[in-house]
Amino acid sequence: MKLSNLVGLALSAVSCLALDPVEVKGNAFFVKDSRFYIRGLDYQPGGSSTLIDPLANPDTCERDIKYFKELGINTIRIYSIDNTADHDECMEKLADAGIYVIFDVNIPNASIARDDAKCSYNTMYLNEVLATVLKMAKYDNTLGYFAANEVINDEDSTKAASYVKAVVRDMKTFIKNRKIRAIPVGYSAADVAENRLETAMYFNCGDDEMARVDMFGFNDYSWCGKSSFKTSGYDEKVKDYSNYSVPLFFSEYGCNKVTPRPFTEVESLYSTDMTGVFSGGLVYEYSEEANKYGLVKISSDNKTVTPNDDFDNLKSEFSKTSNPSGDGSFQEDLPHNNCPPQSDKWEASNKIPDTPKGALKYIKGVEDPKGNGFDASTQWACVAKGNDDDDSGDKSTRTGAGSSATKASGSQSSGGSSSSSSSSKKGDAVVASASGALISLALAVGAFII
What we know:
The protein is an alpha/beta fold. The chain has a domain at 23-320: TIM Barrel (Alpha-Beta Barrel), CATH 3.20.20.80. It has eleven helices and 13 strands. Strand 10 (248-253), helix 9 and strand 11 form a beta-alpha-beta unit. Helix 2 (58-71) packs parallel to helix 3 and helix 5 crosses helix 6. The chain is globular and about 50 Å long. Residues 1-17, 390-424 and 426-450 have low confidence and may be disordered. This is 1,3-beta-glucanosyltransferase. Residues 306-353, 385-427 are annotated as: Disordered. InterPro entries: GH, Glucanosyltransferase. Its main location: other.
């Protein structure tokens, strides 16, 4: 039996059985035959760019799950996960509480760097990403993975988009080849008005299904205080993405310009005004950090949790807001959209970089990736002497045709630009940005296609 088959069987054997997996069906999430809406929190005590794995400490999990249950949530997002740690106990406790998890697969020193995406996309980096995917794939309450968070945050950083899309392709191909269940892979986007629509379109375009996201998240802070469906620009977002073919949700929300936060957006988010296009969202964030978005304060000894007014308001809004009956007007057979044309505000290439040849052994199932946890530092591996990604043009070993995003079919999602403002959250997105002169070697040419 092939190694990849053995891995798939092993993962199935140790899966948590308390929850049925979340699946993608059209532009919505489902658990078996029931529509699933994300009602959740961004959860990273210490801050979303702090290297603390909250699921590696069963005492921390038990402490906080009590409050998750009080809020009535069904999903948390983890920004940094240690791919060498044991997460069995925490994931089981979360499953017992009916809670799924979305994992970001990057850490600050092992991520796509905006300033040199080409260099940071290398074999060592993919080893870490795929080790995280493999580590968390055995749990049925793993809802999905984010290939990156807020890499694109202005016009210049759109150049990095093709490298993030390559990571999506590599992750999805790895999952398929390993015979792991179809865990959704997505991207979490900054709410940048100048290229918000182009970003969403780009990650859902092209003739290579493996390079298109399975879900797409917005970090959205446009509803502040007691706003409304129209004033916030939510109505325009629904129009803009009415033909988007995969699930959309808010991967962060909860503007704090008005405090305590009333969370009146909850009623709109789970109403039929939005559920035909959006599938809920994740409130930013559980614990109070320097940027003042927390729902609870955790004592310095990490033993005591004190909910604040934001917590009480969110609890109240969740408790009085039920999901729509039936399927929430989801759409099952929407085609993927056309790729956005290159312009001054959108410089992403529709030619997706080829997988570094050194990483193909992981993606093909020949060898397991072995993560280095929070010690990983991969962004400048391309400058190391003898790096196996130092290969040029026609000399590269090919395993198939190159990946391209240019031959898209299907209808474009409806145009127009939303009226909401850019994210009001400041600070701690897990995206590394490099500076200074660095020698960047060419990536291997020759994509891996099944």
